[in-house]
Write a structure and sequence with these properties.
The structure is a single chain. The chain has a domain of 98 residues: Jelly Rolls. It is built from 1 helix and 13 strands. Strands 1-2-3-10-5-8 form a 6-stranded antiparallel beta sheet. The model has no long low-confidence stretch (mean pLDDT 93).
Length: 171
């Protein structure tokens, strides 16, 4: 059996984004350290995320299947949910339930000098449908486990909602 305990200082962090992907500047420098596979989690995903000053780790998005929770360990930032903005700081607990674009969320580091560190916990429901309201993208993802470093492997189909094919196209 996998040891069910790990200390955060034993984690290995990786840059946000798949190896070789072109991560936009506003997300560069953010890291994620997978926890779930290290402790044998099955139905929840856990990560430690660190975001440098002035950056975000991920685009604003909403999940139709998965719910996320964030526990702010250190630093300060801003939580965006839909059109609302909320300040966050160490020891805050954040709920991001599944739903439409009104639940779209993003954590951003607002500090000029200190990193924002938070623990992410999410359900691991697959497939999931995700929307990105800032860019007009949406996508479906089927998760296929994890790679040798604990990062999720997935098949993702992402498109612009405005360029979606008609159901009858090509029939």
């Amino acid at each position: 059996m996998t040891r069910p305990i790990i200390n955060l200082d034993a984690l290995q962090s990786f840059p946000i984004g798949a190896p070789g992907s072109a991560v936009p500047a506003k997300f560069q420098g953010a890291t994620v350290a997978p926890i779930s596979p290290r402790i044998g989690a099955q139905k929840l995903g856990y990560n430690l995320t660190e975001v440098p000053p002035g950056k975000a780790a991920f685009p604003c998005h909403n999940h139709h299947a998965n719910e996320e929770m964030f526990f702010i360990l250190s630093g300060e930032g801003e939580l965006r949910i839909g059109d609302q903005r909320y300040p966050v700081r160490a020891n805050d607990v954040v709920a991001c339930p599944a739903g439409g674009i009104e639940t779209a969320h993003q954590l951003r580091n607002t500090s000029a000098t200190e990193s924002l560190r938070y623990l992410s916990v999410a359900t691991a429901i697959s497939p999931d449908y995700v929307q990105y309201p800032d860019s007009g993208k949406s996508g479906a993802a089927v998760y296929l486990g994890r790679d040798e470093n604990g990062r999720p492997k997935a098949i993702r189909l992402i498109n612009r909602e405005a360029a979606n094919l008609d159901y009858w196209d090509g029939e």
